[in-house]
Amino acid sequence: MRPTFPDSPRAAVFSQGGASNAKRTVAEGVQRWMEVQCAKKATSTSRNYQYKANHVVDKFGKRRIADINKSDLELFQAQLLKKGLSPKTVNDVFTVVRGVWGDAYADGVLRANPLDRIKNIERDSDEDSADPFTREELEALSKIKSARQQDINMILFDCWAGLSLSELIALGWDDVDLEGGTVMIRRARVETEYKIPKEKSRARRVELIDPAIAYLRAQFEITGAQPAVPITVVQRDNNSTKRENVRFVFRNGQSGEPWHASSVGRWFAGHLKSVGVRHRGPNQCRHTFASQALSSYVPVEWVARQLGHTDTTMVKKHYGRWIPGDTKSLAGLVSQMMGFRTTTELTA
């Protein structure tokens, strides 16, 4: 059942009854804002907001919104950082704060919104940067006992396909066209829910390059004939659902059950350690595909479409770094394109 904020333990601190707008407390404001978010947002998103809202209620709960000034909020922001919260987490907490104070301003509780003059915490530019695997590391990752072969098929397929982890573990054989060399992204698994992509651009046809097709063909020999699993898929409105029977491409090689993202992470961490590759999360497979493609001069527009982005902005921001050990000589390629070298000379 979808969690709602009034059912949480924090609801006990809310004022009882119909206080006037002028007397609206922070706790009441959070309750109003959370009720809207729980109705509109995905379960995973609203649950995340609830965790962040706890910080706000713990700090200001019974105080009136109108009595809290800009310096109070800036001090709160600084205190969260001092507690050890990351800049990203503090900014997420202030997503709740901005929502509550924005509602209060729109409802006439405030004559001015102090959040208009409070900026988010600046984050280290490297915090979300890609940390892809090199070709040498991919070779090391392929070393695995035969009992977990389907798990390594999944990882290496994604290094050459670029799906997000949530898309990868929700992929079904009915979404795959091996002859045409494509897969359709129709759903994702976020925490315990299957859902269709929230952005229409993420529901897409992905063109597969040769190594990705090879790993899919190998995987078909393992799971291609396995029976479908009935699942419930949350639709884009985050309220309605649809029943589907999915023959999952990738299943947990140990249990045979459909993957959960956290289970992939645990297995992958152990596998990286066993083959002597520096630890990274499984979503680095997606980064690896993008970085390898860009380092080979594949058009940025094509990479963006493959990843489900509407334009090239995110690709340039997160995946634009070329992998030094893998990058070819650009001058040599330009020389070939301009007719000064033959293909043989370029590869010699």
TrEMBL record:
This protein's UniProt keywords: DNA integration, DNA recombination, DNA-binding
InterPro entries, per database record: CB (IPR044068), DNA_brk_join_enz (IPR011010), Integrase-like_cat_sf (IPR013762), Integrase_catalytic (IPR002104), Integrase_recombinase_N (IPR010998), Tyrosine_recombinase_XerCD (IPR050090)
Coiled coil: none
Record keyword Acetylation present: no
Entries under CDD domains matching the protein: INT_ICEBs1_C_like
BP GO annotations: DNA integration; DNA recombination
GO molecular function: DNA binding
Keyword DNA-binding found: yes
Domain Core-binding (CB): 24-105
Domain Tyr recombinase: 128-332
PANTHER family: PHAGE INTEGRASE-RELATED, PROPHAGE INTEGRASE INTR-RELATED
Protein name per its UniProtKB record: Integrase family protein
Species per Swiss-Prot/TrEMBL record: Pseudomonas syringae pv. pisi str. 1704B
Classification lineage: Bacteria, Pseudomonadati, Pseudomonadota, Gammaproteobacteria, Pseudomonadales
